[in-house]
Amino acid sequence: MNVTRAPFGFINNQEVTLYTLTNNQGMIVSVLNYGCIITKIIVPDNKGSFENVVLGFDKLEDYIEHSPFFGAICGRVAGRIGKGEFDLNGKIYTLAKNDGENHLHGGIHGFDKVLWDAKVKDEELTVQFSRTSPDGEEGYPGNLEMKVTYQLTNENELIITYHGTSDEDTLVNVTNHSYFNLSGDLKDDVLHHELQLKSNAFIELGDDLIPTGQILDVDDTPFDFRKGRKILDGVNSSDHQNILVGNGYDHPFMLSHNNQQEIVLTEPMSGRKLIIETDEPSVVVYSGNMLQENTQVYGVQSRKHLGICLETQGPPDAIHHEQFPTMTLKKGEEYVRSTKYTFSTIE
């Protein structure tokens, strides 16, 4: 059980460091102080073979030039904000537009594209990243003091905790954007992964992929994961909601339970199982529909559906929809969120 450090390149003449956490079971989690990026998670299959189960790169340059947010922390606000602007306390704020006319995952230089300070607690298998997002960064108000903590336990749990405070009212809605593939070392795509969600409703998207504000019942739709279903169902679906996101899923699901095994992903061939438990109100399920074939991912050609994201967070664009849980952080209040990822196997 230990934490090691290794150089991973330079950006703006500053060294990027790779932190590797290893527990007593042999599970490994590697993270960068650039973007708080999870580069690898290595866990056993049901035969005891240890393999990587997330998408990433071996070189910093690939993260800078090609990464679709692989393993990164997205913020200040994850997901899209329609028209790249919002009204807060009667003042209009204009954000960086990096997704057509919309703002996506914190903007052009969001949390995923900056260096963070790191503090290691070896005895707790913990790395805590921290930084100050200055007032006006990407258009957001307030100086935001942000901390992201990764902890690996000997029960093969990865716990991510977020903590933030601001000296002005602002928006915060942070998530980790890891692409999971439980087949191990990307031997297959994720179409035959089975996902189970404790969710009775999902949020409808408009043709611009911005939430319409409508919360739809999952009954009798390809969005009903309550008893488990394969990702392939959404890819083959004729439902307009599946088609408009590139054939698959890229939707927020409202969670009916918290911290009660509400998100479960399994892969039949390897027997790997991932349980995600969170205090967040929703999870965005993204089935990698837009992954480009323009790069290699650990020696495997990138392609659609090579990974699946399970982004625990508040609903995207909530600032424009009063019926959604708020993403407003009041001056002096604390933003605290936590998500636990538990890896195991099934026979």
Gist of the model:
The chain has 347 residues and is mainly beta. The chain has helices at 60-66, 232-235, 240-244; strands at residues 2-11, 14-22, 28-32, 38-44, 50-52, 73-74, 80-81, 85-88, 91-94, 103-104, 117-121, 126-133, 144-152, 157-166, 170-171, 175-176, 179-180, 194-197, 201-205, 211-217, 229-230, 250-254, 263-266, 272-278, 282-286, 296-297, 300-301, 308-313, 328-329, 334-345.
Write the layout of secondary structure elements.
Layout: E1 2-11, E2 14-22, E3 28-32, E4 38-44, E5 50-52, H1 60-66, E6 73-74, E7 80-81, E8 85-88, E9 91-94, E10 103-104, E11 117-121, E12 126-133, E13 144-152, E14 157-166, E15 170-171, E16 175-176, E17 179-180, E18 194-197, E19 201-205, E20 211-217, E21 229-230, H2 232-235, H3 240-244, E22 250-254, E23 263-266, E24 272-278, E25 282-286, E26 296-297, E27 300-301, E28 308-313, E29 328-329, E30 334-345
Antiparallel strand pairs: 1-2, 2-3, 3-4, 4-5, 6-16, 7-10, 8-9, 11-12, 12-13, 13-14, 14-30, 15-29, 17-28, 18-21, 18-23, 19-20, 19-22, 22-25, 23-24, 24-30, 25-28, 26-27
